[in-house]
Amino acid sequence: MVSKSRIILVLLGLAAMSLLKVASQNYGDALTKCILFFEGQRSGKLPSAQRMTWRKDSALHDGSDIGEDFVGGYYDAGDNVKFNFPMAFTTTMLAWSVLEFGPLMGTDLEHAVEAIRWGTDYFLKSASVPGTVVAQIGDPISDHNCWERPEDMDTLRTTYVVNQTHPGSEVSAEIAAALAASSLVFKTSDTQYSEILLQRASSVFDFANNYQGSYNLSVGQGVCPFYCDSNGYEDELFWGAAWLYKATNDPKYWDYILRNISNSASSFAKRLNSVVGNSFAEFGWDSKDAGINVLVSKWVMNTPNENPFIFNADRFVCSILPESPTISVTYSPGGLLFKPGGSNLQHATSLSLLLIIYARYLEQAHRVVSCGNVVATPARIISVAKGQVDYILGKNPLGMSYMVGYGNKFPQKIHHRGSTLPSIDNHPGHIGCHDGTPYFESEDPNPNVLVGALVGGPDNSDQYVDVRVNASESEPTTYMNAPFVGVLAYFKSLQS
């Protein structure tokens, strides 16, 4: 017999779902701009269809220091370094966004797929030599010592490579995940390219697994302290195996996951099966734990009591739900989710994507999440994500959009070299390493609008100071925007 309280919860869930359809933002406009941002981060020879026209060709000799062609890819943030670990995560997130929500994107789908291909073309180059994977291009110390346009770069473009004697399982396995996920995006539109991506994903995963070790030790002087792996590389190996299983349906990848989970000596198995600690609640360029549980949950939803994935995906939801007794995040007075570390909007966007995807899986399985005595319906879970999206786009105490170019009020002085310095169209002459300093120190708005860029966001009191020097709040990153693509596509579909 269905209890009265259960009926009330279902009715509340339906009411919440109807509220989601009430338009509070122009999600379609935000989606278009969110994808456009990636054109501003492109490295290499730009295509004739480039829409962010103040950007020009840059870093056309990457890889030449070791006699290779590693031109292309993305600059990760406001600097001019190509950090392949977060770039691969960015590409995986773009691919997952398209796989889950591509049909909802309308005319923006074409540009989302272009953004993915810009990343995968580069990663095919980065993993073209058997037994080696490029981990990074550009010396970060040299780069960060200068404030110059990517088109003017005269800093060290050092190529950092991991190999069999100096392994880098986290960066290699994340590249494998990106290639595998992307192979599914191109499976019907470009079969040959899809097969190339999948074959390379398999070989790169084998390299990551057969020669295990952290790139912290192999290329630490390049990646640390900027993108050190702080929680081990085992999660990336599981993440890569999960995406390869999704792309191939080859049971060897599923067996790999199950075998390692059952190995009590495995550090990741201890993390995944533990009822203490918060690794299950983490997701971003460094930690894939929550993403693994959500991705895998779809395949095991009918056997929730026989695996740790559903259990931990539910725990993840309960760690975020404001009314949950096991919440582990904090919220600002205005409602923005916070986790430790800089560039806070990376948490709001990536965790919102997981919430929406998992809520959809739950809805298909007619399941809810129980957080102690609190029941979270799929509609309630999605409403939490919607609160984050609306806050980011302007529904906050300052009335400020934290997406550049969206709305009437948005950050004007973001921490981004190309945006801060005059474009080559307006200043054709070379701007040297320290010649850009006056532009950085200027109180004028940036001359080039990096449309669609999400900045790090306000502090936990909902305050935001629009200055370039405060990089943790004013710098955009690709891995903040990438999961937001899927989030915005979902809410755009509700709006229409």
From TrEMBL:
Cited InterPro entries: 6-hairpin_glycosidase_sf (IPR008928), 6hp_glycosidase-like_sf (IPR012341), Glyco_hydro_9 (IPR001701), Glyco_hydro_9_His_AS (IPR018221)
Family annotation (Gene3D superfamilies): 1.50.10.10
Enzyme class label: hydrolase
Domain Glycoside hydrolase family: 27-488
Signal peptide: 1-24
Location of the active site: 415
EC number: 3.2.1.4
UniProtKB keywords: Carbohydrate metabolism, Cellulose degradation, Glycosidase, Hydrolase, Polysaccharide degradation, Signal
Catalytic reaction annotation: Endohydrolysis of (1->4)-beta-D-glucosidic linkages in cellulose, lichenin and cereal beta-D-glucans
Family statement: Belongs to the glycosyl hydrolase 9 (cellulase E) family.
Name assigned to this protein: Endoglucanase
Organism: Hevea brasiliensis (Para rubber tree)
Taxonomic placement: Eukaryota, Viridiplantae, Streptophyta, Embryophyta, Tracheophyta
